[in-house]
Amino acid sequence: MRRTELDLCRLTACIMVLLIHTSAALYHICPLDASAFVPLSLISTMMRGGVPVFFMLTGALFLNRESLDLRRFLKTHVLRLILLFAFWSLVYALGSRLVARDFGDWYPFFFDLAKGHYHLWFLTAMALCCLFLPVAHAAIHEGQLKGEYLLFLFFGVSILCANCNLTPDTALILNRITLDFSLDYLPYLGYGVWGWWLSRQRFGKQWLFIAPAVFLACTVLTTWGNIWYSNYKEVADGWLFSYFSLSTLTQATMCFCFFQALKDRPFRRPRLWAALADCTLGVYLLHPLFINILEALGLPMTLEAPVLSILGFTAVLAAACFAATALGRKIPIIRKLI
User: Fold this and answer.
1) 50, 59, 160, 187: which could join 17 in a potential S-S bond, CB 3.0 to 4.6 Å?
2) Burial code of 279-288, b = ≥16 C-beta within 10 A, e = fewer?
3) CA gap 57, 40 in Å, rounded
């Protein structure tokens, strides 16, 4: 059964991620003594919980299932994410060279393919977590997991990656690929389990007020901390921007709990929200490309009016990305790529 409150949560997280990337450019070039630095810090800090929410939603959706078809799950999620990473790495690597009209040597090109565009780390992080998700599912539901799968995780991931990292400097591409699937991403699985646990709790009406209040209080305190640390370092710094900081955990949790409090409530146009939520992966994959297009068209983001320019830019960006994704999903071949 489709849950509209989770669709709305996914859409909110998607917009938060867009705001992270649109505000970053201004935040890191803004002088610390400029009046724009405080609102930029507030916006940048407020949106950090968006990424963990996606992992929480994944846990809530899959760990609540009584059974998990391992082969189908690995094919439709893990393999698909890896193929999407490879395809979009190629798109962005070719695109950057076409714009610069400089293809250079083959080695840097293949290294960029292995590295991926800056935002594609999310795909490999999610793929790694999905690879281990059946382990968490088996533990939660007291099911049985084949020993062969555990051996695959041990030899195919842990041992293989550890030994590939021992390769000499001449094998940088191989080393780069292992970093894409680094076990450093595995703690995101914790967000998946956390999302599953929260999804099984009941949140009353009061959470529609508690969650935003805690979220805002945490954001204000974290913003103050980031401003203090930036002044200490004498450069705009995201001291508490980590997706595993207590502040980000609190923000993501409150965002998730707010929408959980809307569970079983009637929603208008649930099919519309479901269709938009299905576009969020495509929006994530496309948005850096559209940021470059909008900047080339002269759509401004200025320090003179940072809040309005960022919100306006993000609104146009979101509209363009959702429209392009919705259109692309109507075409069978493109649908599989977004």
Assistant:
1) 50
2) bbbbbbbbbb
3) 28
The span from the CA of 172 to the CA of 187, in Å, is 25
Q: What tokens appear for 144 in the block?
A: 């049985």
CA distance 301 to 95: 23
pTM for the structure as a whole: 0.91
Burial of residue 191 (number of CB atoms within 10 Å: 0-12, 13-18, 19+): buried
192-182-67 Cα angle (round to 5): 35
pLDDT tens-digit series, residues 90-101: 999 998 888 777
pLDDT digits (tens, 9 = 90+) for 141-190: 876 666 667 667 767 766 676 677 666 656 678 878 888 888 888 889 88
Q: Which of 109, 110, 10, 88 is nearest to 52 (CA)?
A: 10
The tokens of 191 are what? 């967000």
